[in-house]
Amino acid sequence: MKKSSTHKKHKKIIARDLSKLYHFLLKNLGAQNWWPGNSAFEIMVGAILTQNTNWANVTSSIANLKKAGMLNPGQMYAKRRSLPKMIRSSGYFRIKSQRLISFVKYYLDKYQGSVMKILKVSAEKLRIELLQVYGVGDETADSILLYALNRPVFVIDAYTRRIFSRHRLINYSDEYRKIQRIFHDNLPTVVDQYNEYHALLVYLGKNYCHKHDPDCSLCPINSF
DNA sequence: TGCCAGGCCGGGT
DNA sequence: ACCCGGCATGGC
């Protein structure tokens, strides 16, 4: 059996139950306490480095940057030529170096690399700006908004698509903003809940909702 | 060994 | 509006 997305063993989830599902997952899986990172800038960098990449591969890159004193906008830009070497373990290291440079340049030019200054701009306006930056798409922009800048923006990723398409809330290939709207419309606008919910979905995706031949009998959602 | 990982971009139809 | 190839390392 290859496809599971429409198999009956996946319990159907409806939009109105998203809030209850959150509390269920939090109770059964425990708080994930994201984002694993200390400063806002470290989280921004991590959001780019983890694109289509295992987080474990990113941690050593972050450690390299920290050791080199490059985990701040000014030094990262000044030492930008050493980025490929520093972030090699994250994969796509050449293109991700370009993405980090374009992001840091934007952050320095527009906000002098200051969290205080970027926090003065509304989430809606910031999202549009971030999407103009080379290498920042919907998920990366929203990860920065939610996890680095504490804005109530729900992050949609491949795990979210996989989990909820199997449970027939969405189609896997639905537009990003369409999926996001379902969460925004059916959850209280609470940053901490958006934060924890996405982290729980990643945990669920990693451990129970595998791409091929998923072992659905172990998925906690079955007993929701 | 091959598949997968917390995407995004550019070109083609 | 889709669809696709390219980008790349490290763990199981």
Walk me through the structure:
- The chain has two domains: 15-33 and 153-223, Orthogonal Bundle (Endonuclease Iii, domain 2); 40-148, Endonuclease III, domain 1, CATH 1.10.340.
- Helix content is 56%, strand content 0%.
- It has helices at residues 18-29, 40-49, 55-67, 73-78, 83-86, 93-111, 115-118, 123-132, 138-148, 158-166, 176-186, 191-207.
- α1 (18-29) crosses α12, α8 packs across α9 and α10 (158-166) crosses α12.
- The longest helix has 19 residues, at 93-111.
- The chain starts with 17 loop residues before the first helix and ends in a 17-residue tail after the last helix.
- The chain binds a DNA duplex (13 and 12 nucleotides) through residues 34, 46-48, 50-58, 60, 88-96, 99, 134-140, 143, 155, 157-160, 173, 198-199, 201-202, 205-206, 210-212.
CATH architecture of the largest domain: Orthogonal Bundle
The overall pLDDT, averaged over residues, is 95
What is the ordering of alpha helices and beta strands?
HHHHHHHHHHHH
Helix content: 55-70%
- List how many beta strands DSSP finds: 0
The CATH topology of the largest domain is what?
Answer: Endonuclease III, domain 1
For the report, how would you describe the main beta sheet? none
For the record, the CATH class of the largest domain is Mainly Alpha
Q: What count of domains describes the coordinates? A: 2
Measured distance between first and last alpha carbons = 24 Å
Rounded to an integer in angstroms, the radius of gyration calculated over CA atoms is 18 Å
Morphology call: globular
Q: Assign the structural class, choosing from mainly alpha, mainly beta, alpha/beta, alpha+beta, or little secondary structure.
A: mainly alpha
How many helices in DSSP terms?
Answer: 12
Low-confidence stretches: 1-5
**How big a fraction of the residues is strand?**
under 5%
